[in-house]
Each structure stands twice: as structure tokens, then as C-alpha cells.
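Action item from last week, closing it out:
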Amino acid sequence: MDTTPAPGNPPADGEIAHLAAPPLVAGTELIGRYQGSGYREPPYLVRRPDDQILQLTPLLYSLASVLDGQRTYAQVAVELSGRCGRDITADQVSYLVENRLSQAGLVADGPAADGARRAAPKARDRLLALKFRVALVPEHVVAVIARVFQPLFWPPVVVLGVAGFALADIWLAVHGGVEGVLASAHALINRPEQILLVLGLLVVAGVFHECGHVAACRYGGARPGAMGVGIYLVWPAMYSTVTDSYRLDRAGRLRTDLGGIYFNALAMLVMIVVYLRTGAPWLLASVVAWQATTVWQFLPSIRLDGYYILSDLVGVPDLFDRMGPVLRSLLPGREPHPRLRELKPWARRVITAWVVLVIPCLAYWIIAFLILAPHVLPGLGKALVDHGRELGEHVQDGAVAGAAVGVIRILMLLLPWAGMALILCNLGAGFVRFLGRRRARRAPD
């Protein structure tokens, strides 16, 4: 006799007890407890087949670990009760499967899911996150790259590499100084085609930067994913998938975060040595530009390496997710938001300080844009016309290098303003959605 309940009718408790509990989606990986956590009760981590890392409570993680597709709800309830030390019924197991694990895209089939065809929920559109990502280097190739560069994280090699860069940089500052930098700038002005050499070398250094992240991830025992490019704010940016580093302890995660900056130092060491041998001015310009980029990486106000370093030091995966709860909790007379109460006191204080510092920083750039735009945009238009005319002359003369430099100059004039306009549009759209949700909650039934 078929005891499967009719569609749309919830099964009775007795029917649930004898039904087979659904298994996890194939490829789901149970990672374990989040190490070095800033939570009062550290969550457990699960990796979905789409490589998204989810946090689960100890109860849900224990439930996920016994969903093999063979046990019935009654058997799962008995196993879960033994693990948790409290009585759990088959009906409660069914509720957790349908309303928690299934909604998180972890269950292949279930009462509320359309079998294995049910699509997993998409990742949220996070604030200031990388957009339009395109994977260019598949995971199996990244594994080879990480294995090749992994020995560079052997501690004696790290000490030698960092010390060598520090000594070379000090020597360059003492013997090159401002005069050398100015001479390099004049050389680039007189020979603009060398700007293409600088940009090309910086692209190679950027790829090497991402190799540092994946190599550090593998060195710690995690599995790096694909590498590719995307749009950050409005600038093209390279990325590497190292979400599996969440399985590592705090030291392993920090090594992964700092791996790119460490490889930046190695890249600059090579640039300085070659510059000392050749005296090529564009190499010195490349060193200075890459040093400025490396310092910029330490800023924790946007999603650069410094942001992830701070996040892993605190032990809270996404700091921007806490920004709203922190701001609401700072209002007079408000109790701390539940998403703050779940954190350890020291972690809560660090995140609150971060929010208090980051909000004025972001507001400064937005307000400055709004104030300066009416004064700068007319000049921007004239500069674009002048560069466009110069670009046309290069094209007519067949000067490929000059034309390429002209295109780059036009893009560099446009991109910052286009990026700021895009940020304002996104913030405005988010504010409209927020007002819509508040209006919907206040509307009478």
C-alpha cells in the first residue's frame, strides 16, 4: 500500500515517523565547527555543491550529519535525541528538514521541495561585493598552480623573502628617492608607450597576487577553487575562490588572507632587482604603483585583503552584515540587536568600532562626490574632448601605442565617476527596497 501523503496535505505524525528522511544534496560537505570564532556559541559550517559556505547551529549540523536517505524520520529522531541529550520527535525532525535545511538548499528532497530539482537559494547581493564574476582558470588548474607555489610558504622561505624585500626597498628609497621617481615619471610622459609596459606588468603582478591566496589556502590544508575576473565597484578586478579556508583555524585563514600581500612583496623584490640591473624607468614606476596598491589592500573599509584580515581576526565571516544591527543598537534606548548578542563581548566591541569608523569614511566619499560633481564634470567633459581629439590623431597616424594609451586615459577619467554613480544607484535602490519592506510589514492584513 502506498502511504505517501497526497500533494498539499501534510502527513500525520504517524505517517511521518515511518517515511524515509531525505538525504543531503549530493556534493554537500560537512566542514565542522568554525574555529577561532567570535561567536558565544561557535557555529558549524557546511559547504554546498555551489561552494557557498553556510553556518548551522549545532542542532541543525547534527541533523544534517545523520541524513543519509536510509533512516526514517523516527530513526533520525532517536539518533538526534541521543546526540543532543533531549527528546526530539519525528514531527520536529520533519519541521527542521522542511523549514531549515531544505530552505538552505541542503536537502535533495523533502515535503516542501520539488525533489532534487528544487533550486538552491542564491547568495545574497552583499554590500560592496565583487560583481559579474567570470571564472577563467578552472579548479583543477588552480590546484596545480597552488601546488607549484605552495613551498614559498615554508617559514624559512617566508622570512628570507620578506627580509629580502625590506632590504631592497630600503636600498631603493635611499639611492633612488624622489629624484628617481620623478625621472621615471618624466620618461613615461616622453614615451607614453611605456605606460603599456607598466600596466602589463601590474596585470601580471595581480595574477601573481591571487596565486598567493590559493597557494596559502592549499598550504593550510584547504582546497582553493576557480580564479577569474569581475567588477569591483566599477574597476576590473581579479579574484580567487578560497572559501574552503573557513575550515582552517584562525592562523590558517590569516595566512590565506595575507598570501596575496606576501606575493606582492615577492613580486616587488623581483622588480627592484631587475630595475637595479637594467635601470629601466618604467620598472621603477611599476614598483611605486604596486607599493601603493599593496598599501591600499590593507584598508578594511571596503572588501580588500585588509577587510578579510580584520574579519578573520574577529572570527565573524561578514562584517558588512553586522552594520545594520550595530547602527540600530546604537540608537538611544535600544537593546543590543540579537545578531550582536550572539557575539562575544570583545568581538562586538571591535565590530562596533569598525562600523563607527567605516560609516563616516564611506559617507565622506559620497558627499565629496555630490559636492564636487557640479564643479568637476564640466572640466571632465573638456578633458574627454581633448583626449578624444588626441586619440583620433593617433589613429590617423597609425600610432598603435599612442592610441592604446589614449583609450586608457579616457577610461581612467570615466571609471571613477561611473563607479561612484553606480554606488549611489545601488544605495538608492537598497533604500527603496528597505522602505518597501517596512511599508509591507505595517500594512494591515
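Closing note: The chain has three domains: 13-117, 127-315, 321-445.
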